[in-house]
């Protein structure tokens, strides 16, 4: 489609859209939160007994959401005054290391996904269809190492020309969100300058990364009632659903 199509879905200067996955395109953010809670609560209960303070949604949003898995483990445990050895990437899930706890969480997440599946947000599918129809390129930038399998399970791989996920972040030694490295890698993969690309994020760390990278349009997706915080971290616009961006088209 022509320029009118581009104006419908994004500002005219935007040639590419970079989407976070969990919480933006799919509802798997809820499953991630559940997996983190199961993992951290079991870890803290074993360490501190029945007097432990459970992992909360506020903990998830502050220390874990949007960050690479090991960074989330490290940040949250530090908030509780707990320090663990780093360990290795392939540590077994029962290892009391940063990597082991992260792998424990991933094992729990895989079980949850197998039992409940992956559902894309209908509004996000509508928006992806409109973006593709307008001729803009599409990339997914996620800290999750399960990016490919989640996109396949949700039926969204057909839309995606480039994927930067946790595996790519590790392979290329990129800094995780809130640093902009992964989004910058996504822009490079699509052959556009940051100023020509839009970032779509539900995590404060992700919005902060989009702003730090000098991207042309940063959209905050408010799934957890934190619109003011998303704006404060750098979102140009905040919506509750990506379909809200198509309001002028209705």
UniProtKB/TrEMBL annotation:
Q: Which Pfam families match?
A: Hydrolase
Keyword annotations for this protein, in alphabetical order, are:
Carbohydrate metabolism, Hydrolase, Isomerase, Magnesium, Metal-binding, Phosphoprotein
State which Enzyme Commission number(s) the record gives.
5.4.2.6
Regarding protein family, the annotation reads: Belongs to the HAD-like hydrolase superfamily. CbbY/CbbZ/Gph/YieH family.
Q: InterPro entries annotated for this entry?
A: B-phosphoglucomutase_hydrolase, Beta-PGM-like, HAD-like_sf, HAD-SF_hydro_IA, HAD_sf, PGP-like_dom2
Species per Swiss-Prot/TrEMBL record: Saccharopolyspora oryzae
Its ancestry begins with: Bacteria, Bacillati, Actinomycetota, Actinomycetes, Pseudonocardiales
| Keyword DNA-binding (UniProt) | no
Q: What is this protein called?
A: Beta-phosphoglucomutase
> Single GO molecular-function term?
hydrolase activity
What general EC class does the enzyme of this chain belong to? isomerase
Record keyword Phosphoprotein present: yes
Q: Where are the transmembrane segments?
A: none
Q: Which reaction does it catalyse?
A: beta-D-glucose 1-phosphate = beta-D-glucose 6-phosphate
The superkingdom listed in its UniProt entry is: Bacteria
Q: Region (Disordered): which ranges? A: 82-101
**Which co-factor is required?**
Mg(2+)
């Amino acid at each position: 489609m022509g320029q009118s199509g581009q104006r419908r879905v994004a500002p005219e200067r935007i040639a590419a859209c970079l989407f976070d996955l969990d919480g933006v395109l799919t509802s798997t953010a809820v499953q991630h939160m559940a997996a983190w809670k199961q993992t951290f609560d079991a870890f803290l209960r074993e360490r501190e007994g029945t007097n432990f303070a459970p992992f909360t949604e506020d903990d998830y949003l502050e220390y874990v959401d949007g960050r690479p898995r090991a960074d989330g483990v490290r940040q949250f445990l530090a908030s509780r005054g707990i320090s663990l050895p780093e360990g290795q990437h392939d540590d077994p899930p029962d290892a009391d290391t940063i990597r082991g706890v992260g792998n424990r969480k991933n094992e729990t997440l895989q079980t949850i996904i197998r039992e409940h599946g992956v559902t894309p947000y209908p509004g996000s599918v509508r928006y992806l269809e409109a973006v593709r129809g307008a001729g803009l390129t599409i990339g997914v930038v996620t800290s999750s190492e399960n990016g490919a399998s989640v996109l396949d399970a949700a039926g969204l791989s057909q839309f995606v020309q480039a994927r930067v996920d946790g595996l790519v972040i590790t392979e290329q030694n990129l800094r995780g969100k809130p640093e902009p490295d992964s989004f910058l890698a996504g822009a490079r993969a699509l052959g556009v300058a940051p100023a020509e690309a839009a970032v779509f994020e539900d995590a404060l760390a992700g919005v902060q990364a989009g702003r730090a990278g000098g991207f042309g349009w940063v959209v905050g997706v408010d799934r957890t009632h934190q619109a003011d915080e998303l704006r404060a971290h750098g979102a140009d616009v905040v919506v509750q659903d990506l379909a809200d961006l198509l309001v002028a088209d209705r």
